[in-house]
Write a structure and sequence with these properties.
Length: 109
């Protein structure tokens, strides 16, 4: 755990505190390495839906909700709460048309 116990005292009587432990970081404790993670599952599901259902000019943003809702995904459970906000928060993956009823989203890479 990267901690070193320097002093352990046992309780002296039933009425005193049971035990006291002084803990401080161990000297030269190794720093944990970051774990490589796969892309989030939602990101991959959205990318797959756009590839499978979109054309060369992308897919309507409004079409994402029924496609992904069938897979049990509710965009309102995310911090962004709307598909447009979720897509716009990931500009390295998606390009969105300006707001409008026919606005589309395209994959960037």
């Amino acid at each position: 755990m990267g901690l070193q116990a320097t002093q352990i005292k046992s309780g002296m009587a039933a009425t005193s505190s049971a035990s006291q432990v002084s803990v401080r970081p161990a000297p030269n404790a190794p720093t944990p390495l970051p774990i490589a993670q796969d892309p989030p599952p939602l990101l991959e599901k959205v990318r797959t839906a756009i590839k499978a259902n979109g054309g060369a000019d992308g897919i309507a943003i409004a079409a994402l909700n029924p496609l992904l809702h069938r897979q049990g995904i509710r965009i309102t459970d995310t911090p962004e709460r709307t598909w447009r906000a979720w897509l716009m928060a990931r500009p390295q993956h998606f390009a969105c048309d300006p707001k409008g009823p026919d606005a589309k989203v395209r994959l960037l890479r």
